[in-house]
Amino acid sequence: MALVLAPMEGLLDFVLRDVLTRVGGIDRCVSEFIRVTNTLLPERVFLRVVPELAHGGRTPAGVPVRPQLLGSDPTCLADNAARVAGMGADGVDLNFGCPAKVVNRHGGGAALLQDPQMLFSIMQAVRRAVPAPQTVSAKMRLGFLDDSRAEECALALQEGGASEIVVHARTRADGYRPPAYWHRIADIRARVHTPVVANGEIWTVQDAQRCRAESGCHALMLGRGMVSNPGLALEIRDADGDQPVQHGVPWTALQPHLQAFWTLVVSRLEPRQQAGRLKQ
Q1: What is the pLDDT averaged over residues 191-216?
Q2: Phi then psi for 128, rounded to 5 degrees?
Q3: What is the mean pLDDT of residues 132-138?
């Protein structure tokens, strides 16, 4: 079983990736999105969002971090993907799921799910630009206004060369409202041969087990549930084995991680941002 830490704009940045991967249970992280418009970004921009690139593309705990790009221009995305791939990441992820209005208004994120041909064009261009040994993955929702084209979108990504597809089991119109429609991920899996990762509404071990049963996925992506309970990945792993399930990480064990988090916040973020990050 693979457990992936989700990208979460404005929350799950390199600071929280560091701390949560120290707690344990996570196999891989995806960074918050890096917006690509009409220019080739300098390396310093990628390093600002994914400073792990300066250390072999891994968190201090040794967990790989895959940079995520967001945009709608195939050629520009390909150029930037080639650059960031050359900085030491294990691969590149593409964002086709962001529900933010400002992003969708400019044709990015989940808005692209209305145009499977564009998904194909972007994926094909990026796959050709990134060296073959490195992964090119994609994160999508079930659709924009509805899920009627979910399978078509996944097939377009597969045909473009996607190595892996993460499916957030809601549409853009659903936002983050429960439930997540995990059974629709199973429908997608029935149509594609590309590995699929299930994402959405995984807050507990029981959620993880139901998600795996309904989606048929062996791999899961954890987001808000992992932030709420830093021990969630470890609990899911315990439940998958023969050992008794450990319910959460004891407060005494979390205290050093909280101190490490605050030290990183103070050293890397502006003073006006620090208290807000600790409250989050």
Answers
A1: 98
A2: -70, -30
A3: 96
Determine the Cα–Cα distance for residues 165 and 152; give it in Å rounded to an integer. 13
Q: Which long-range contacts (C-beta less than 8 Å, at least 24 apart) are formed by 236-242?
A: 236/1, 236/3, 236/25, 236/205, 236/208, 237/1, 237/3, 237/25, 239/205, 239/208, 239/209, 240/1
How confident is the model at residue 89, as a pLDDT? 92
Task: Report the chain's terminal Cα–Cα distance, integer Å.
Answer: 29
Name the CA dihedral angle for 165, 171, 172, 176, rounded to a multiple of 10 degrees: -100
76 is catalytic: no
* Ranges in the chain annotated CATH 3.20.20.70: 3-248
Of 66, 153, 140, 137, nearest to 99 by C-alpha is 140
CATH 1.10.8.60 fits 3-248, yes or no: no
Name the pTM for this structure.
0.93
**Active-site residue, from 98, 153, 211, 217:** 98
> What does the chain come to in residues?
280
* CB-count burial class (<10 Å; 0-12, 13-18, 19+) for 148: exposed
Where is pLDDT greater, at 176 or 245?
176
pLDDT at residue number 210 = 98
